[in-house]
């Protein structure tokens, strides 16, 4: 069955993090686009699950991301103005650790290369401004005032809403089953019939392995476990007093932290486990109590003022590439099939600029911002230590 007779300019497959932003930017540029999502827009089963995300400008993943981050920040603020509730809270971001730690060295490199506003806080300054963090001897805090907290599911909904306002068609609860691309265009078989488009953008996250076997980029599906903690004094954990951040304090002390917005819980992601997952459809995010008890004890040793009796946990998935960089490009041999994948635990914050780059790539076969570190044919140097691949 043909869903409708028309041929769209572009079909975006998957309206999660990257797909929602790509659809928004394509529609804004006047492209006749359709977006197809297997679940409801704004669901929590993909890369946008887990209630909050970090935005950082002083970037440990490398200075090459800073132009994407600067542009994304502008677009996050634009999206904020279109959303009934804020999706970007510009509370700043902290990076905590010893200055010689490789991740802090990278943060300083990003700061220097782009002359980014920042403040280095000594252990005593940290104790007086951010007493929640129990620092170790020799550690410092780097405050990045352009950082902030993102609300991911609402961000996806806001981007899809903006895309619709610009004329995009959105098909929810429609699973793409097969993609057949040739020189004349792309035929997309879905659970609700076939869609035709001049070209397709596959933004199916961890499901892209299933949709385009062997052609979706070299990444592994891995689990990240989030823990939420009740606090003894919620006023100490609001964004202005407990900004988002990451900490590098040894193998059991690497984690990211997120403030409370509603006064009930903060969130932490201890970077100790990235269990491999083969089938995202069979994934169960339930976390066993023994594992949670270990994480609770670690975090309570590093952050004071948490309630050890109010803890909950949930696992989520992302695709991790061997060098921590995502894939953005056309499938070899199919220049009307673009794939975005492997965002390696740090893709959310750059999603709006990636969406804009998709719109440019589709229209002009080039992007304003250099994304060559995401090319399919780049030289990939494997990072041996899985923990080094952890991001947020
Ligand atoms: C726990 C966790 C914490 C993170 N924290 C941060 C952070 O603080 N900051 C940050 O920048 N990044 C963070 N990340 C990384 C970031 O969230 C991901 O890199 C990003 O969301 C991946 O986006 P995506 O578009 O590739 O996948 P998704 O957002 O999962 O989108 C894929 C979409 O495609 C749909 N789809 C799949 N197959 C089909 C099909 N056949 N038909 C139709 N639709 C389909 C899916 O339903 C989904 O909606 C985190 C990731 C995780 C898992």
TrEMBL record:
InterPro entries: FAD-dep_OxRdtase, FAD/NAD-bd_sf, MTOX. Keywords: FAD, Flavoprotein, Oxidoreductase. Its cofactor is FAD. GO terms for molecular function: flavin adenine dinucleotide binding; sarcosine oxidase activity. Residues 9-360 form the FAD dependent oxidoreductase domain. It comes from the Bacteria. SUPFAM superfamilies: FAD-linked reductases, C-terminal domain (SSF54373), FAD/NAD(P)-binding domain (SSF51905). The keyword Cell inner membrane does not apply. Gene3D superfamilies: D-Amino Acid Oxidase, subunit A, domain 2, FAD/NAD(P)-binding domain. Pfam families: DAO. NCBIfam families: PRK11259.1. This is FAD dependent oxidoreductase domain-containing protein.
């Amino acid at each position: 069955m043909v869903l409708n007779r028309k041929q769209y300019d572009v079909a975006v497959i998957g309206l999660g993090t990257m797909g929602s932003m790509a659809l928004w930017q394509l529609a804004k540029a006047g492209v006749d686009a359709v977006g197809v999502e297997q679940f409801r827009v704004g669901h929590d089963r993909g890369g946008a699950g887990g209630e909050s995300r970090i935005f950082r400008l002083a970037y440990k993943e490398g200075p090459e991301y800073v132009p994407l981050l600067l542009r994304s920040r502008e677009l996050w603020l634009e999206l904020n103005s279109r959303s009934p509730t804020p999706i970007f809270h510009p509370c700043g971001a902290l990076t905590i650790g010893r200055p010689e730690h490789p991740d802090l060295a990278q943060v300083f490199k990003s700061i220097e290369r782009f002359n980014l506003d920042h403040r280095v806080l000594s252990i005593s300054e940290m104790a007086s401004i951010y007493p929640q963090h129990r620092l170790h001897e020799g550690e410092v805090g780097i405050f990045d005032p352009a950082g902030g907290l993102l609300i991911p599911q609402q961000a996806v909904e806001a981007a899809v809403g903006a895309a619709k306002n610009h004329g995009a068609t959105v098909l929810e609860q429609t699973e793409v089953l097969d993609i057949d691309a040739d020189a004349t265009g792309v035929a997309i078989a879905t659970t609700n019939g076939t869609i035709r488009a001049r070209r397709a953008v596959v933004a199916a996250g961890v499901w892209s392995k299933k949709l385009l076997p062997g052609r979706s980029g070299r990444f592994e599906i891995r689990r990240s476990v989030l823990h939420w903690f009740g606090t003894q004094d919620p006023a100490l954990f609001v964004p202005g007093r407990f900004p988002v951040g990451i900490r590098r304090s040894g193998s059991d002390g690497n984690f990211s932290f997120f403030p409370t917005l509603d006064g009930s819980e903060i969130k932490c992601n201890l970077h100790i486990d990235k269990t491999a997952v083969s089938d995202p459809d069979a994934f169960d995010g339930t976390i066993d109590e023994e594992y949670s008890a270990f994480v609770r004890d670690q975090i309570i040793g590093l952050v004071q003022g948490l309630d050890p009796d109010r803890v909950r946990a949930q696992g989520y998935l992302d695709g991790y590439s061997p060098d921590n960089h995502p894939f953005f490009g056309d499938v070899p041999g199919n220049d009307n099939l673009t794939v975005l994948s492997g965002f390696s635990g740090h893709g959310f914050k750059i999603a709006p600029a990636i969406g804009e780059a998709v719109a440019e790539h589709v229209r002009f076969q080039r992007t304003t911002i250099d994304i060559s570190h995401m090319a399919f044919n780049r030289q990939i140097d494997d990072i041996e230590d899985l923990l080094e691949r952890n991001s947020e």
